[in-house]
Design a protein that fits this description.
alpha+beta, Cyclic Phosphodiesterase, Chain: A, Deoxyribonuclease I, Chain A, Poly(a)-polymerase, middle domain, 5 domains, 8-stranded mixed β-sheet, 7-stranded mixed β-sheet, 42 strands, 21% strand, polynucleotide adenylyltransferase, ATP-binding, transferase, NuclTrfase_I-like_C
Length: 1149
């Protein structure tokens, strides 16, 4: 690089020393832009000011004064004044690294070369035949790499630079043992004024030093002020802004919107700018409008484009950075930068974090404050910290990330502890349990690394900062992911809810990551707010999902690989739950699961082995069936004259129930609600016509029933049972689906009660999908509770026991409350908490509800509500109105037993659910636990399976009445109903065509809690039981709508336990043969407008074409009376009632 000529005589200054240098230092006004780039890219930044070396190494430190004297004597009048002009940047390529520098133009280089040789000659050194003046700004490793080319581009953005040189600077290294930071800085020793030939006193500022060790880890712990910028509308340029004169708190806000967006920098040279327009469109979209916008991965190629957009400049006139292509501003310091845009004036500081290029932008908004209702005064100015933590799921990456989080939180606590603070950005914290498990299995993540990740999660959810996504999710809800409602449980993993980086949906993310664990959704992007912020988060949404753009390779992708996030903060929002509700709600406390219960994957395998998780084929067929149903109902499949000239009907089909919520099984029916603009009567006539025409496509209409909320069609589509209901609500249809995200009390829902009743399943479902904090955890927990309830004989809503809605109401508050804890809660933790919480529940006085939804609920619980499980939307809140005191006691007893099992050392789910492949573990317990049962026999010999199902369904729905009667009239007994139909032996093919005989069983036990001693009052109890069974039979047989003695028979008797010990559950022979018969009730005249009717009937009238009964099938009332009396005597003791007394004479009260 240099060659020497001249005299060979030795100089008195001897060998040069690297502890001194003679150089030119540019004016300090040029330092900020240069040093911003050098701070993160020049390893010598902490030791040297910006400079151009004239002689380095220079003289020995002890000879600096002598050298200065000689320089003062040199005649340099023909060289000075010297004008330095820099128009370009370049790089020196070395073996192991490259030096990037600002390059003086040729004229400057010639003048500097002459100056160098004058100095060398004066010192008695050889002159140089060549000299390359340069101002170093950074280093790179590979001159062919994209990183090198990006850095060189940054250096060129500093040009042009120019100044007049008036001084020569002699720098001497600080080698004292007590140097402040041990960096051995080059400090200014002498400054020579060339014109006056004197030594002048000059002090160089100690610039913001962001030093790094040999591992590129930052050693700095303080933040450094940086210039902010304001858009000048008169000049259309961004100018440095000084906010020191602003009046503190002059802008008191009652609302604030903060948004964050990782715009994804380009990493290949030359950069593809085709996404820029789409990125700006996303930022200007309605869903992204904000007061303060925090951007990550901003580059020199994107920021000029952004800050030249008129709409952006109008919305956000203040910024932490100016456009790099403005010469006086210069490049961004890093390849990936954090930029904060704002409607309000700001000042900011750069906080170095663990790694060289990782730091936080901490912005203060002097004029922004809020009214603090708790203190009655205004808050201190708002602080917003933008962050982009280190990525990676290795021990080293997590260790760095933990330090970064800690440094930022510590800085905010120490420097802004009394100010309201918001942290926004890309946290890069892996949340998907699948990705974490895969990383551990591959060896990339150790046990210590997993603990470090857990520590980071805990740090981000501590009491000082609140995650606004979670705060709004569990209350108002977040609707960005509602479309995920039907995803199969086997495809779900913990920690993927609220994902902002989702390669499964985001085309650009999918393109970048390929496959493997990196393809799982992650909630990387977050907004946190401190407890000092008087405002509360009330709404949250994502943006950037809709717009696609074509990039250089021709593919259509999303503008960024991340979704943007946004939060609305407001004041005067009730942050907690109304005290009146808290008095009736039992606080939820975490019960940690035993390690023996396993993790999320163990739960899924447990469910899979028991048939509770559907297959991919099950999911595909259901989606195909739903699509087919929708197509047929809308008439999209029609062609020809029938379709011509007809106005399309306004309809939308909404899968609700278990399928809509994603907790369905392969045996589950699909419940669908159709919302439209036509009347109910017109809809069902049209629907029946179109569905029948589509019979050749796998659709069969099974029957039409009149449910509590109106007419319902039972269908079979591609072999799957469907229940189809309709709601006439034109205003809801026109604004669907957005209307489903409106608050429950919104004016859009000022509708008739009957309409609200029909809409309730859809409204509840949409709220749950957008408010449950982790749907994967909820769904697996739900299905395991359902499997447990089935195995223990307490699942069956029609019997007054648990149903899907009841499990949901019980489980959702557990999921939401545990999500607020400052620690990671697993699905097994949720389950053990569920059983422990409700095992200690006072069902008589306490209420189960979602306190994050019901904040000002006025609900009067009546004495006829032994089970108070409040749902969400009106009109009917208590979802357990069919429950009775006996069923509640049965449920409570089973929960208590299971909680005891789970609390034992080594507890397993097999112990709770029973062996795989066995029948419900509770069936044999039920049959063997009671010495006597009430047996409700049901026989049917008609030709129509549908009529048989109607009869059995009607009888089933009335079984609960016996429990209520026993509880009221025979309180000494504690009845337990098994929610299923029994038969004496499995049905064979030969018996399938014969008379159907089944029965229901109610176990009878003495009530240990009854007053007066049950066993001492057997006569009264026996009399009461006999009377209520007779009354039950009378009521059933006298109901001509459902009971036809010509085709069916029923009786209620008491039997010994041994008489039914060999009974087995009915697999549902009649339930599966409807499709083989064409017995649909086709009386269209019975249709009526459901909006004008309300009915408590569960089924429609039975068919009337059944065959006459044979003499052997006729009911013999005398025989039944004798049979009942004999069995009651057997249970309660003989001789209590005379054997010849009639039923009427022995009737109990």
């Amino acid at each position: 690089m240099e060659s020497r000529t001249g005299s060979n005589s030795p100089s008195k200054f001897g060998a040069p020393s690297h502890d001194t240098a003679l150089c030119i230092i540019p004016p300090q006004s040029l330092w900020p832009a240069i040093n911003r780039l050098r701070s993160l890219n020049d390893k010598a930044y902490a030791k040297w000011p910006p400079h151009i070396n004239l002689a380095y190494p220079f003289v020995h430190p002890d000879l600096v004064a002598d050298a200065a004297d000689i320089l003062l004597q040199l005649d340099l009048s023909d060289v000075f004044p010297l004008h330095v002009s820099i128009l370009d940047a370049d790089a020196f390529v070395h073996d192991k690294h490259n030096t990037l520098y600002l390059k003086p133009d040729a004229t400057t280089a010639t003048s500097l070369h002459e100056l160098v040789n004058r100095v060398r000659a004066g010192l008695g050194w050889q002159t140089q035949s060549s000299y390359n003046p340069h101002l170093t700004v950074g280093q790179s490793e590979d001159a062919d790499s994209d990183t090198h080319k990006f850095l060189l581009h940054k250096a060129r953005l500093l040009a042009p630079l120019s100044w007049d040189v008036a001084h020569l600077a002699i720098m001497v290294r600080d080698t004292t043992a007590d140097a402040a930071d041990g960096l051995r800085r080059m400090k200014l020793s002498k400054s020579i004024d060339i014109k006056s030939k004197t030594l002048v006193s000059m002090t160089l500022p100690q610039d913001a030093v962001m030093s790094a060790d040999k591992n590129e880890l930052s050693q700095a712990s303080k933040a450094y002020p940086q210039p902010a910028y304001h858009f000048d509308t008169s000049t259309k340029r961004w100018k440095a802004f000084d906010g020191s004169a602003l009046e503190l708190g002059s802008n008191k806000l009652s609302n604030l919107i903060v948004a964050s967006y990782n715009v994804l920098s380009e990493f290949n040279w030359p950069p593809d700018t085709s996404r820029n327009s789409a990125l700006i469109s996303n930022l200007l979209s309605r869903r992204a409008e904000a007061d303060i916008l925090v951007l990550q991965e901003v580059s020199d190629h994107f920021l000029p484009y952004l800050l030249k957009n008129d709409d952006i400049c109008a919305k956000y006139p203040y910024s932490t950075h100016g456009p790099p292509d403005q010469p006086e501003i210069g490049p961004l310091p890093s390849l990936l930068n954090i930029v904060i845009l704002s409607k309000f004036p700001l000042s900011w500081e750069y906080l170095p974090l663990q790694r060289r290029h990782k730091g936080a932008a901490v912005a203060t908004f002097p004029a922004v404050s809020f009214h603090d209702a708790s203190s009655g005064s205004n808050s201190q100015p708002l602080v917003v910290a933008g962050c982009h933590f280190s990525q990676g799921l290795t021990d080293g990456a997590l260790s760095s990330k933990k330090i970064e989080v800690l440094r930022l939180q510590r800085h905010l606590a120490e420097q802004h502890g009394r100010q309201p603070c918001i942290i926004a950005g890309d946290f890069n914290v892996t949340t998907s349990s699948y990705a974490i498990d895969m990383s551990q299995r591959s060896g990339a993540l150790s046990t210590n690394g997993r603990q470090c990740l857990n520590d980071i999660h805990d740090m981000l959810s501590n009491a000082e900062f609140h995650d606004v996504w979670l705060a709004t999710k569990i209350a108002a809800g977040e609707s960005s992911e509602v479309s995920l409602g039907n995803e199969a449980v086997m495809d779900l993993y913990e920690g993927e809810q609220g994902a902002t980086f989702n390669p499964l949906e985001n085309k650009l993310a999918e393109k970048l990551v390929g496959g493997g664990a990196d393809k799982r959704p992650q909630r990387y992007d977050r907004i946190l707010c401190s407890a000092q912020l008087p405002l509360r988060p009330v709404a949250f949404n994502m943006f950037g999902k809709d717009l696609m753009t074509e990039i250089a390779d021709g593919s259509n992708v999303h503008a960024s690989d991340h979704w943007g996030i946004r939060c609305l903060f407001t004041e005067n929002v009730q942050a907690g739950v109304a005290k009146g509700i808290l008095d009736r709600v039992k606080p939820i406390e975490l019960t940690e699961a035993a390690p023996s219960l396993g993790g999320f994957e163990n739960l899924k395998q447990t469910l899979l082995s028991r048939g509770y998780l559907p297959t991919e084929d099950d999911e595909a067929v259901r989606k195909q069936a739903i699509s087919l149903l929708q197509s047929v109902l809308l008439g999209n499949d029609q062609t020809g004259p029938d379709q011509d000239g007809r106005t399309p009907v306004g309809l939308v089909l909404v899968p609700v129930g278990s399928f809509g919520l994603g907790v369905w099984m392969s045996s589950s029916d699909v419940d669908c609600l159709c919302i439209g603009t036509i009347s109910s009567k017109t809809f069902f006539r049209m629907a029946l016509q179109r569905l029948r025409k589509a019979s050749d496509r796998g659709i069969r209409v099974l029957r039409k029933v009149l449910a509590n909320t109106g007419t319902m069609l039972e269908l079979q589509i591609l072999g799957i049972k469907f229940d189809l209901q309709y709601c006439a609500a034109a205003s809801v249809f026109e604004k669907f689906p957005g209307v489903m995200n409106l608050p429950s009390g919104h004016a859009e829902f000022a509708l008739p009660v009957q309409t609200l009743a029909k809409l309730k399943p859809a409204r509840d479902m949409y709220y749950l999908l957008r408010s449950i904090p982790d749907l994967a955890k909820f769904r697996v927990a739900f299905l395991l509770i359902k499997a447990w309830a089935n195995s223990r004989g307490i699942y069956g809503a029609r019997f007054g026991l648990l149903g899907g809605i009841h499990i949901t109401v019980l489980l959702v508050p557990i999921c939401k409350q545990l999500a607020t804890l400052s620690r990671t809660v697993s699905t097994t933790d949720i389950l053990t908490t569920f059983f422990n919480h409700y095992a200690n529940f006072d069902w008589d006085s306490q209420v189960v509800l979602d306190p994050f939804f019901h904040k000002e609920l006025q609900y009067h619980r009546t004495s006829r509500e032994p089970f108070c499980l409040l749902g969400w939307h009106a009109p009917a809140l208590n979802t357990a109105m069919t429950a009775s005191t006996p069923t509640v006691k049965s449920i409570a007893a089973e929960i208590s037993k299971t909680n005891t099992l789970l609390s034992r050392p080594g507890a397993t789910w097999d112990a709770v659910l029973g062996p795989v492949g066995a029948a419900a573990s509770g069936v044999q317990d039920f049959l063997q636990s009671f010495k006597s049962h009430v047996k409700i026999d049901a026989r049917f010999w008609g030709s129509s399976p549908t009529s048989g199902r109607k009869f059995l369904g009607w009888l089933e729905s009335r079984c609960v009445a016996i429990l209520v009667d026993i509880n009221r009239n025979a309180p000494a007994l504690l009845p337990r109903l098994w929610p299923g139909r029994f038969i004496d032996a499995p049905v064979t093919d030969a018996a399938a065509d014969a008379e159907y005989q089944g029965f229901y069983l109610i176990g009878l036990a003495w009530n240990s809690n009854s007053n007066g001693g049950a066993k001492d009052d057997m006569k009264t109890t026996k009399t009461a039981l006999e009377g209520l069974l007779r009354d039950f039979e009378t009521r059933m047989r006298s109901d001509a709508r459902y009971y036809d003695a010509a085709s069916c028979w029923m009786a209620a008797t008491v039997v010994n336990g041994g008489d039914v010990a060999e009974a087995v559950l009915d697999p549902g022979h009649l339930d599966g043969v409807d499709a083989a018969f064409n017995d649909f009730d086709d009386d269209d005249d019975s249709d009526s407008d459901d909006d004008e009717e309300e009915s408590d009937d569960a089924v429609a009238d039975p068919d009337s074409n059944d065959e006459e009964p044979s003499s052997s099938r006729a009911a013999n009332d005398g025989r039944v009376v004798w049979e009942r009396k004999t069995r009651i005597d057997r249970v309660f003791g003989s001789g209590v009632v005379p054997a010849d007394s009639t039923l009427g004479s022995s009737q109990g009260a």
